[in-house]
Amino acid sequence: MANADIPKEYTLDWLVNETENVYSLPIIYERLTEVINHPRSSIEDITRVISEDQGLTARLLKLANSPLFGYFSKIDTIGKAATIIGTQQLQAMALAVSVMEVFTGIPENLVNMKTFWQHSIACGITARALAIYRREANVERVFAAGILHDVGRLVICTAMPQFFTGLLIAGREEKALLFRMEEESLGFTHADVGGRLLEKWRIPASIAEPVAFHHSPDKARKFPLEAAFIHLADIICKSLDLGFNGERFVPPLEPSSWERLDIPPAALAEVVKHVEPQMADTMAILRGGGP
Amino acid sequence: MGKILTDNLAPGMFLGADVRDRSGRLLLGRGTELNERHLYILRTWGVVDVEIAGAEEGGNDPKTAKTIDPALWAAVEKKIAPLFLHADNSHPAIKELMCMRIMREAADGKR
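^ inputs. structure came back:
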């Protein structure tokens, strides 16, 4: 395998630092977090911060009015969205939107960004639907974690393009799982990388941890259930060919996580039936006119 | 009393238990006779299955599976086998997903 661009003394932190020079989280997200976490903030304060970013405002409103929510009356202001959907939920959605906008300029011959985000968004919607099925409180966190679960792959691809290409070729020739090969070659996986980057960006652990453990949810210390949602959603999307993230095989299902989720197998078809009508709209809203 | 998937519900069935949304709010009470409007509400709120009075547990077998020609089923099964190379095909969830994929492929093939 081509390991030419792996420096001798690389570590997970090296990789994440390397990435921080290229990509940074939009300042708007930090300001939003600050205002949401401030005990004396009002909905007006939150609305003011979001409204400063017209693109973000438009996307959040479109999401709020999409089949994802299915509200009867039109949500035409961020204030209304914050009241009806919830500020924490809005924050998670804003995070997904902000991070997606960060990763641009990746060469098309390495990653097809359209199919990559298709898989990511499908995973986010599916994980959200699984969380709704389980009657979880904040399903938008799960939605955001699902959308971001593979960002580590974009990081690896940007910092070590030759290694990444070698990985894809080896995956095809040796019929091996990419995350297993990453583990063997690097000592960590794209899941670890994604988790560490989000942690560095001070994204809440409820989102960063499920990303970091989406291939091994049982190892998640605080959020194993959330990690299990992403884990199963990833497997569902892979099984049904919803988008493409570079991986050619359905990742192995962790039986203990399946049991933790406590979802009857017959319900999977039903969950997917809810997911599919939401796919195209959500993709169009989150990707905009992007490539 | 048994759980019936929302998709398999029909007007005229009676709820065997209260139906609540994800935050625990009561949507429909036990004993309600379902009508089209109720089915719409259940779908909108993402309720996947409900308890129905008099229904048998496990009455949700995918009936469509039986309508697919066995030869077509076998052909599609063979085609998708490589995708599931690293998955445990004996696990009920994986079995279900393989079945769903086969039905999708078969439906696409017919179109």
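The first helix of chain A runs from residue 12 to 22. Chain A touches chain B at residues 70, 129, 132-137, 139, 175, 177, 232, 235-236, 238-241, 248-253, 255, 258, 264-274 (CB under 8 Å).
thumbs up if we can close this ticket
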